Each structure stands twice: as structure tokens, then as C-alpha cells.
Amino acid sequence: MKKFSLKKLITSVLMMLSMDSLLAHEITSAQEEDKTAAFDITLGQVTTDSRLTTFIMELAGIAGSVKPESVGQLKGAKVESYVWPTSLDPSVVGFEKDSGTLALAITAHPDFDDTPLFDENNDGDPANDGSEWHSHWVVLVEDQTCGAGLKVRDVSPGADLLPKTAPGLPIALDSPGMSPTLDQNTARIVVPIGNTEGEAFDAVTAELQVHHQAKTPLLCVTQVHDIASKDMSLPGRIVNSEN
Question: What is the per-residue pLDDT across 92-135, written as a single tens digit (0 to 9) for each?
Fold first, then answer.
């Protein structure tokens, strides 16, 4: 399985940010017959109105139609995800500055609930809806022990800087409660962050897994389904939707 180097990614992004006219505003990707249609990316796009930023991903199949199977416990639990890695610094949403690649993710995982402040399925219990599609900010870092060479950064709650809505897991993960929309072939989410125009992004679909034992890395990226750019080079550019 191909693994990714964040050092090479960051170098590539910096080079592209200095070549403004060569950057694509959106990323298109050809449909591939060998990929699961629900995770086969055909378009990645991010726009802003200077107050809010909208992340969009179009798929060859029905967005959100495939969820991971339950294993009955947190250890070994799988996570399916639609992810937008960005060039935004993690400190923008409350993580440690320069601590990795900030990514917005829409995830589903039936074996645990990491959004304790929110009741996604509206049944009165905020602790039983991890299987519903929901949003996270995460910080990705390299770890070659993970299947795809990436993990959600391990942290120590109370010692490392985390957003106020972080659920208290020992990873750089925030649960801000922004509701995603998965409709037909489109996954979309709007976040309350402005001043993002010109930042770089990519679009990725991936599977993650919680470690089978109580040790780090806790949450690995184990399989990449598709990458809009094919190489995680973040060729997209966030554009102002009002222009």
C-alpha cells in the first residue's frame, strides 16, 4: 500500500503556493471502475464568502452509502471518512501551532461515539450515534507503522493544546458539531471559518482504525480509497464564492 510523506507534501504545497497562477481552484478526478463508487472522488471543491467556508466532495456513487461494519468494541474499531486535508495551520481551530496537517473530516463509526456534546440521531442520548455521519477537525502526522503512513496525531489531553469542543480522546481530534450533508453523490459541510481564501486543499476518502491494543498510534489511516490529486499534493485552492 502506498504511504505518504508529510514532509514531501508540505514542500510541494509551499512550492505551489508560490506559483499562484498554476493552482487549480477545484480538483477533478476521473471515475475508476475498480474503486467503491461511494468513495470514488470525481470532484473536490472549497469556497468561502469570507465568513464561512464550504467544503464539497462529489463521488461516483451515493455519498455515505457505505459504513464500516461493527466489531463490537473500541479496540480495532473501523472508521470510514471523507476528508479535506488543507494548508491551514492547526492553530486556526485551537490545536498546537505547526503540529501537522489540519484536515476536515466527515466520519462514521458504529463502535464508539466521539461527539459527546451532540445528539446526531435526535433520540435524546448524545452518546450512541457514532454510526451517524458527523464532522471532525483532525491533525494528521506521519507514522510509517500505519498502513497508509499517516495517523491522527497522538496527544495528552490537559497537556497538549486542544479545542474546547475536543471530546477528550488522546488524539488531535475536535468535535465542533457542524452537521454535514450527504445527498446523492455529494458530501458537503459548512464551517464557521473565514479568511481562508487562497489556502490549498485536497480531497481524500479513507478508512481508519483504532489500535487493537491500548497504545499509540491510537488512530491510524489504514487504507486510502481515493485521492482527488492522486498524490496528496493539495493542488486545490479555496476561492471566494462571491467573486
Answer: 999 999 999 999 999 999 998 888 777 677 778 766 666 899 99
Torsion 132-209-165-185 (CA) sign: negative
The full set of domain ranges for the chain reads 6-26+72-117+129-182+196-228
| Burial class, 173, CB count within 10 angstroms (exposed 0-12 / middle 13-18 / buried 19+) | buried
**pLDDT one-digit tens code per residue, 108-119:** 999 988 887 776
Give the contacts of 147 (CB within 8 A, at least 6 positions apart).
1, 220, 221, 222, 223
Peptide bond into 217 cis (omega under 30): yes
Cell numbers 478508512: residue? 207
pTM score: 0.89
Burial of 201 (0-12, 13-18, 19+ CB in 10 A): buried
Predicted confidence (pLDDT) at residue 242 exceeds the cutoff of 90: no
CA dist., res. 176 & res. 182, Å (int): 18
Other CB atoms within a 10 A radius of the CB of residue 142 amount to 18
Residues 6 or more apart whose Cβ sits within 8 Å of residue 157: 166, 168, 169, 170
d(CA 24, CA 27): 7
89 close to 231: Cβ distance less than 8 angstroms: no
